[in-house]
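Weekly puzzle thread! Below is a chain. First person to post its structure in token form gets bragging rights.
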Amino acid sequence: MPDRREYLVALLLALIGAGGAAIFLLARLPSLDEGLVRMVAPGEMAIDLQPGTYTIFHEYRSVVDGRLVLSDDVSGLRVAVSAAAGEPIALTGAAEARYSINGHAGVSVAAFDVDTPGRYTLAAAYRGRQGPEAVLAVGEGVIGKIFGLVLGTIAIAFAGIGGGIAVASVTYVKRRRAREAKP
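Winning reply:
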């Protein structure tokens, strides 16, 4: 008859999967917002960018220069990106992504592509009214990092927990068959 210790192996596999997922998540979470450039709007800021796809986030809770900035309603805030020569860069909708890390919480609002490395200007202003200060964050590949983090965490957890369930199920079936086969 198969040993009951195989259930312990199943439990260990499940715990290793859950622990591995937690370690994977906690090790990568603090660096998720690395590379984001932040500016307080209304205003403008020059940014050196390399070719790639960038996402603009509205950080409704942020810390800039040691100052907490909260901004829930930024309706009417117009955002523009332009190249060094002043030609505008087309903004598109961004895949929805939200984050809350390192004292910053934000949501994606727009995306744009850069074909040529250089200095670009991010500008934001309210049209026809005064509005609250808001923090905009710009970064390349942030949405991909978020999805990679979520999918990697889930994959590690399912591998360990699924392996544990598989070992426990096989052990159960073997033990039941062994009991039924006894005279």
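Puzzle host: Confirmed. Bonus trivia for everyone else. The mean pLDDT is 87.
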